[in-house]
Specification:
It is a single chain. By secondary structure, the protein is of the alpha+beta class. The chain is 40% helix and 17% strand. It contains four helices and five strands. Helix 2 packs across helix 3. The radius of gyration is 33 Å and the shape is rod-shaped. The chain starts with 9 loop residues before the first helix and ends with a strand. The structure holds L-tyrosinamide.
């Protein structure tokens, strides 16, 4: 189909852009941003000889700066979720092997490792440490890998705190 395409004239497009810009300023003023959080960049339609005046309808005083970049100034940081790494009891893995695992993977002293191992042996489950997701996942994988290489059924898992 061959037909005329109805493009808006450039002046009309600029007018719409200007109105959108003013509306976005009003929008940011209502929220937690202020116009001071908005950094105006170079003028797109101001004359270099007459920088103080934009075209009619641009609000008059801003030199015709139609480009804005909104930046959030307050840093928003969140603490990562933490995960407990748990050791499970079984009837076959040797106590000494569990103590070695706790020393090697969780950097426990011999005394702490023995205490944790005995706790798991008696209660069925115990916490080896608390870590961010990736570290907890790696430690679980290391325990299971070492145990399987030695053909022990030792079970290790993780749980969100
Ligand atoms: N119950 C095992 C035994 O009597 C020892 C053991 C302790 C196994 C802790 C696993 O996570 C464990 N040999």
């Amino acid at each position: 189909m061959e037909g005329k395409q109805n493009f808006l004239p450039p002046d009309r497009l600029l007018d719409i852009a200007r109105r959108n810009y003013q509306a976005s300023i009003r929008y940011f003023d209502q929220g937690d941003m202020t116009t001071s959080d908005i950094c105006r960049t170079g003028p797109v339609n101001a004359s270099p000889n007459d920088p103080g005046k934009g075209r009619p309808g641009d609000g008059g005083g801003n030199g015709g700066n139609d480009t804005a970049i909104a930046t959030r100034t307050s840093p928003k940081t969140k603490k990562p979720s933490m995960y407990k790494v748990l050791l499970l009891n079984d009837d076959y893995t040797p106590m000494e092997f569990v103590v070695r695992i706790l020393e090697a993977v969780f950097h426990k002293t011999g005394e702490d490792a023995t205490r944790i191992m005995l706790h798991v042996h008696q209660k069925g489950v115990g916490v080896c440490g608390v870590y961010t997701y990736d570290i907890a996942e790696t430690k679980v994988a290391q325990v299971v890998d070492i145990a399987r290489r030695s053909e022990h059924p030792l079970q290790c898992t993780m749980e969100k705190e």
